[in-house]
Structure formats: C-alpha cells, structure tokens
Write a structure and sequence with these properties.
- Its EC number is 3.2.1.96.
- α5 (162-178) runs parallel beside α6 (197-214).
- The protein has helices at 3-7, 25-30, 126-134, 147-158, 162-178, 197-214, 243-246, 260-270, 296-305, 317-321, 327-338; strands at residues 49-52, 69-70, 77-81, 112-115, 121-122, 138-146, 183-189, 219-223, 251-253, 277-282, 309-313, 343-344, 352-354, 360-361, 364-366, 369-372, 376-377, 417-420, 426-427, 430-434, 446-457, 463-471, 482-490, 495-501, 509-512, 519-525, 532-541, 547-557.
- The chain is 20% helix and 27% strand.
- The strands form 6 sheets. Strands 3-4-6-7-8-9-10-11 form an 8-stranded parallel barrel, surrounded by 5 helices. Strands 13, 18, 20, 22, 25, 26 and 28 form a 7-stranded antiparallel sheet that branches. A 4-stranded antiparallel sheet has the order 21-27-23-24, with no helix packed on it.
Length: 558
Amino acid sequence: MDMYEELCKSPCKGDCTECVPLLSVQEVLEWRPDERPWPLRPLSPRTACSSVGTSHLCHQTQWRPTKLLDRRTVPRTLVCHDMKGGYLDDRFVYGSDNHADYRFFHWAGVDIFVYFSHKFVTIAPPVWVNAAHLHGVLILGTVITEWDSGKKLLEEVLHGSKEKRSQFVHQLVSICKHYGMDGWLINVENKVEPKDVVVLKELLEELTAAMHREISHSQVIWYDSVTRDGSLKWQNELNAENKLFFDVCDGIFLNYVWKEDGLARSIRQAGVRALDVYVGVDVFGRNCYGGGGFNTSAAVEKARAQGLSVALFAQGWVHECWALENFTPLEYTFWRKLWPLLHVHGPSGLPFDTSFCQGYGERKYKRGKVESEQPWHNLSLQMPQPCLPICVEDASQLPKGDAVSKEKVTTKFSGCVQHWPKDAYHGGGCLRLQRPTNIEVFGQRIYHKLFFCSFHVGEQDALCISYAIKSSQEGKEAPKDLALGLLFLDTAAGGYRDEYFGVETKGMKESLDEKTGWKLRNYVVPARGRRYKITEICVALDPNATDVLLGWLSICLY
C-alpha cells in the first residue's frame, strides 16, 4: 500500500489512530518511535522567489508577469494554530467524518505553521504536517511550560545531569524526525530561578544546534516571556532582557502588546537578523494593536512598515467565533484583507496535479463520480491551493460593533473564483470560475491567475497538460470559450511569453463523461530544444464563458 492509499483510508472503516501530546519529562525520555510509521509527506519545494500579495489579483483584463523578490530578503509570516486547546478531531491520523471541522487553505502566504496546545510537548498531528508540507510550509511543534506546574517540569530538565539534558534534546530531535516536523516553538511562561537561566539558554542552544544537524532547514523559535534574570516579564520587543535567548536560536516570537517604538528598537537589537523577529499579532485582539478580528491587518501593516516578520496567533478565529455556515466567505474576507501584506510563494517542480480539494467534503468523488456519500474531513488529502485570495463581497457587508459574534451575516460570494463544495472531479470540491459581476468587463477576456510557480522544463522534455471542466448548471455543457494559460520564461526566445490551451489548440484531445458532465482536455507540448520555465498559471474566460467548474489540473513532463 503506497502513501496515498494510506492517506485515503476511510475514517469509519479504517484505522482510528490518534496523535497525542507528551505530558511529562518521563514520557519524553521514554518515547520510542511507533512500530507502524504514519503516512507523512516530505517537505515539498516551493519557489525560490516570492511576490507581494498585491500582485495576485482575482481577475485581470491583461496578464502581466509578476514582479519577483528573493524570498530570503523579505519578511516572513508564521501562523500559530491555537484552537480550543488543540487535538480536536484533527488528532485522528486518518481524518474524521466531521466535514465542518476547521480547515486552513491560505498556505501560499505562509512560511511557518506552528501547532500549539497547552500540553508540555505538542506533536503536530499528521493531517497538519501533510497539508503544510504539500505547500512547502515548515511545521513546528510546541514545547511549553506554564505557571507553577510548568516550573516543576522545566526544573526537572534543568536540574538534571548534563547527560539527561542532552538526552531530552536528543528525544525532541527524534520526535521531530519521526513525525515529520521541522522544529519547535519554545514557550517558557513561568518564572525561572536566576541560577537556572544560563542552563536554560544552553539547553536552547543545544536543541537548535542538534536540530540543524539532523534537519538542515529546521527552525527553533523562542517566545518572548522570560528575561535574563528569570522573571516572567513579557517585553513585547527584542531588547537586552531577552536577546540572550534570541542569539542562540532561529528567531523570537514577540508578545502581542507591542508599541511601534518598541518594534524600531527591536530592529536595532536584531541587526542583520531583523527578519528573525516575528511580531506577535493576536487575531482575537487581546490587548493587541487594531483589536484583531477583521482588523487584524492593521497590526500586520504596522509590523510590515518596519520590515519585520509576523506571527499570527489563533488564526482560526473565524471558525471559532462565527456561525459555521458563514465560515467560507468570512475566512476569505479575513485573508483577503491580509493578502496585500504577505509575500506569496508557489509550487516548484513537476509533476504538478491538483483538484483544488481543501481536504473535506459532504461526499467523496473520484474521476467525477461519487465514490462515497459519507461526509469526511482529512487535511492529508488536501490538494494544492491557489495562490490568490478568493474574491468576495466588500468587508463593509460585515456586521458592525463587536468583532466576535455568532450572528448570521448576509455576505455572499460575488467574486469570480471560489471553492465549490457541491461537486468535484476528485476529492470533495473544486473551483467555480465566473466572470466578475462587480466591474464592467463586457466583451473582454478575463484572466484568473491561479498559481505563481517555478516549473523547469529541459531541452528534450515534452509537456503533458490536462484539465477537467464542467458547467455549474445541471444538464448544461461546459463552455467552450475557456482556456488554460501558462506564462513561460524563455530567455532564449526573448523573455516572457504566454500560451493558451483551449478548444481550438492544435492537437487537443477532449473527452466528455456524459454521466457526470465532466469534460477532460489533454494537450502535448513538443520539446523545444531549449530550456524554459513555467512561472504562472491562469484560466482565461472569453465573453461567452460565464460560469464553469474547474475540477482538475495536471502538468507533467512527457
């Protein structure tokens, strides 16, 4: 049984194995790898360059190449997933039947994802590891000690022999490797005795070095809490009180009650490592600039104005605090406001396949046919998600007043690209593409940019391209006036060049499944005798193509 078959196990008929945290030092020291490893995706490559989120507009009447930036030189975005204590239905290794459970799909704007709970050693469930790694995003677990009970746990490590501390570090590294994680968030939220501060610093340094030896891309990030004299005193900036910890790890996650002048001081303290300072932003708005909620972007904007990275805490706010039937449009609204402040990355390397499934469904489809009527939720089965923020009605449609509300809202999709859960070619959903209703584009071709990417094609490589489309209206044939567009960077031929694959493309082979209505188009692009690169993927809708489902997209070397 290969990994994908393992991931596809039915949660009812299959294995109900759970991922659980480790609650004590003894559990960590006695931990051993599972006899039967869980199916885990390796970290996928992503583009070496990034682009500013403003480059990824939902609809355009002209298609221009995106301005590229070296991703090593731009601020990063960390998401810290804290939801109701963690280990909800996402703890099941092979998913659950709770199709309304929380899902995350804005991976293109994120660099690091932290799975957080208030347990001593939080191991990220494999459904999150697989979804993050599919999109090239690092995923970290959490080591946390809090208050009096946490102080005792920490002292059990710090007061042990040097050999015991080294064994503790070794176990954390082994746990990361076994469960596919890429590092740790270290959160010490209890007083530390002054004599133990140096030992704590050495432990952090040893862990960081050991992680780098075993997982070269790993990250160990320190939370802004304890100071150099052991006091539990959040600084809300990088300064002399907490810099000794920052100096021996990969970054610091600042507490949320910061001021702009403190961010400026943080830059001076960090020097050449300013991008390793993650400005904490609490989406629930607790004492945070801007008040969080749909105004979270105000705090992010302040951090970005200083050129600093950002750590978004509890990004599942929409799912926790609004009626579930409103989750999708409000989640898109939340992230659309953030997108201009993020640096977007995309997939790198062929083959590339996606059905746009978000890892859940009211039923499950395979090649357009219903495979199971049972609702399901398994983020391990998520497919690559678009790099653009989906278009929705203006946020002014949201209720006024208190940012947290269970109130029903009237916000509806008026955008031209949206996730569509009522049909699928593979998985539990697809994309619905429409001509925009909020701008005058009559008689013009509309371009929906889907992916920013980096797919290298060799001199002797032919390409095989396929996609599946269907009308969103029952019984109606999919429109012919739709084409898949690829943007090629072909230096030898003079730079960028766009090419479209539609119904009139020479050599196109098309097949229609009359039972499901899905139409599959296939194209072969001959080898060109020189190297080139695919940098963007879009869908072009001509005036007569008004409403279509896109259920499959595949590009591979042939």
